[in-house]
Design brief:
By secondary structure, the protein is mostly beta strands. Helix content is 14%, strand content 39%. The protein has a single domain, classed as Galactose-binding domain-like (Jelly Rolls, Sandwich), CATH 2.60.120.260. Strands 1, 2, 3, 5, 8 and 10 form a six-stranded antiparallel β-sheet that branches. β2 and β3 form a beta hairpin. The longest helix has 20 residues.
Length: 192
């Protein structure tokens, strides 16, 4: 085969092999724990495609929805499916780097959330858990008609021995039947 044909053909084959190798990752939504990526730990924002990092829990459903190019999280549960443990409810796992930055500090958790269109909840419940070291308890916060910013503050316990796993859990307050919320974002702020 002539060089004029061989080298362009080899280059084309190389490009095709590279495209095939990266193709499974194209368009994939982020998963795993919420991390600060070593940049700025004073404000961690979970929004847009990063809402896909939610762990559903046992008896609740959490579904990523897209509306006009923006992602939201629809969370629905039932009254008989509520359990106290934050990790058994819809939650975001906090990565070790953020956990170490928050340990022994006061933080503010702010969620931008609204009642769902069908069976919308009038309140949301949130809980910051530091695993065996303790948690904030379920904080019940009132929602308005549209998106409302609700927040609470919590003194995260210092690390004791081995590093644990922190969670930020969120669910609709469900007095009876089933209720749902739509989550736009959660912001974790390390306070001075």
């Amino acid at each position: 085969m002539r060089d004029k044909i061989f080298f362009p053909l080899a280059a084309l084959l190389t490009v095709l092999m590279i495209l095939l190798a990266i193709q499974p990752g194209i368009g994939r939504l982020p998963t795993g724990a919420v991390t600060g990526d070593g940049v700025d730990y004073s404000r961690i924002v979970i929004d847009d495609t990063y809402l896909n990092k939610i762990v559903q829990g046992t008896d609740a459903s959490a579904q990523l929805i897209r509306d006009r190019g923006t992602y939201f999280l629809h969370i629905e549960g039932t009254a008989d499916g509520l359990v106290a443990a934050p990790e058994l409810n819809p939650h975001f796992r906090i990565a070790a780097d953020v956990e170490m930055q928050f340990a022994g500090r006061r933080i503010r958790v702010t969620a931008r959330v609204r009642p769902a269109d069908v069976r919308g909840a009038s309140q949301v419940e949130m809980n910051y858990s530091a695993g065996r070291s303790g948690d904030s308890g379920w904080q019940t916060l009132d929602l308005g008609e549209g998106f409302t910013e609700v927040s609470f503050e919590y003194d995260v316990p210092p690390l004791q021995g081995e590093q644990g796993v922190d969670y930020i859990a969120i669910r609709p307050a469900i007095p009876e039947g089933s209720r749902a919320i739509v989550l736009e974002s959660i912001v974790l702020e390390r306070l001075p």
